[in-house]
Design a protein that fits this description.
This protein is of the alpha/beta class and 148 residues long. The protein has a domain of 98 residues: 2-Layer Sandwich (Alpha-Beta Plaits), CATH 3.30.70. Helix content is 30%, strand content 18%. It is built from four helices and five strands. Strands 2-1-5-3-4 form a five-stranded mixed β-sheet, covered by helices on one side.
Length: 148
């Protein structure tokens, strides 16, 4: 009886070790364009402070945009949800500190290859921010694998 139990346990262990891990990509099935993290577009020597505002009724869209912008090198210092009266269909980047080139970087990052977000200059010296990114309903997070 003990020998049968030992053979069964060893067989299960060997069988389990031969199965591919759920976290490891299967050979030939991984698309590098989807599984790769976004490349950093903000230079290392620059710190661009960004506030992300979810201007939609979709819960969690601001959090996804925050993660996306952080991966690209932006320093997202806050995430808010806009009131119902301020909901938007398209995304908008507000230049708060007079750096239109930074606003253009954020518009390209949030817009991706589809359509760049619109940029407006709205200086505000009372804020400790460079940009405000209003995420609209048309924004879709880029397809990518989940990562912590």
């Amino acid at each position: 009886m003990a020998v049968l139990l030992l053979v069964t346990v060893v067989g299960l262990v060997v069988w389990r070790l031969r199965l591919p891990s759920a976290a490891a990509p299967l050979p030939g099935n991984a698309d590098p364009a989807i599984t790769a993290r976004p490349s950093r577009i903000v230079p290392d020597s620059v710190r661009i402070k960004v506030e992300v505002v979810n201007a939609t009724a979709t819960r969690g869209l601001g959090r996804l945009a925050t993660a996306w912008l952080r991966d690209q090198g932006f320093d997202v210092v806050g995430t808010l949800t806009a009131p119902d009266k301020d909901r938007r269909d398209s995304s908008l980047v507000l230049d708060r500190s007079g750096h239109p080139e930074w606003a253009a970087l954020a518009a390209r990052a949030i817009g991706g290859a589809r359509v760049e977000a619109r940029v407006e200059a709205r200086p505000d010296s009372l804020r400790y921010l460079d940009l405000t990114v209003l995420v609209g309903r048309a924004w879709r997070p880029p397809p990518q694998t989940l990562y912590p």
